Amino acid sequence: MSRLAPAPLAPLELMRAALHLFYTSFTRALPYALLPMVLLFALLGTGYLLGEAGYLGQAWALYLIGAFLLLCPALMAPLVVQVHASAHGRSASAGEALRRGLRSFLPCLAGAALFMLAVGTGSLMLIVPGTYLFIALSFWWIALVVDGLPVIKALTGSLRLVRGHWWHVAFGFSYVYPVVFCVNAFDVNMVSLSNRMVEAVVATLIAVVLCALVPMFVSANMVVIYHDLTLRRRTKMR
């Protein structure tokens, strides 16, 4: 049974729907958010060690973050498969989520590169075009992974869905910021144990889990808004 609304929602109702989907999909989605976060922390740790040893320049963190942003949609594809399945009241096996994630890995890399290029070009022109494109093109990821659209059709399809509803989507996206703020507000340095090594491991594990909450909520939020936009487009076409 679908957990998504049968009719378009008001902005505040979008928040409740996203929170509900985040809660109901939490257990199944968590492993698929943790694995990319573990990879990110491993990359950052490796970069830090190599930077301290003098093998990398001072901008190593920026390069690693840029690489992760490019890889992020591909690595998180199994996550959105699980969240989308939960939203429609069905279970997706680990094999199905991983197969669909693997199948969309290269298209996601291409889509992420084109998305970053479009948003970056818009931002160089003016802040407003960059912000507009960031929101208007964001649903390429859902369209590609969930609906199986080719990269270009996913990007243009996102533009069509958001057209006329940009502020509605921007308001829906704004719910992500409190989640990010709460995650950042937690100070892992509060963890205090007698053994420094154990303390570092525990603090890192807590940081990984906290950071995994952000893509989980982002995925739930995007699935809810994507469904809402689809309903609005169908209503408009009648």
pLDDT averaged residue by residue: 85
Largest pleated sheet: none
Q: What fraction of the residues are assigned to beta strands by DSSP?
A: under 5%
Radius of gyration: 19 Å
| Secondary-structure element series | HHHHHHHHHHHH
- Give the termini separation: 25 Å
How many β-strands, per DSSP? 0
Helix content class: over 70%
Question: What would you say this structure looks like, in words?
Answer:
- The protein is mostly helical and 238 residues long.
- The protein is 79% helix and 0% strand.
- The chain is built from 12 helices and no strands.
- The longest helix is centred in the C-terminal third of the chain and has 42 residues.
- The radius of gyration is 19 Å and the shape is globular.
- The mean pLDDT is 85.
Outline of the structure:
Keywords: Membrane, Transmembrane, Transmembrane helix. The protein has 238 residues and is mainly α.
Features:
single chain, 12 helices, mainly alpha, 238 residues
List the helices and strands and how they pair.
Layout: H1 11-24, H2 26-52, H3 60-75, H4 77-87, H5 94-103, H6 105-125, H7 127-136, H8 140-145, H9 151-162, H10 166-173, H11 176-185, H12 196-237
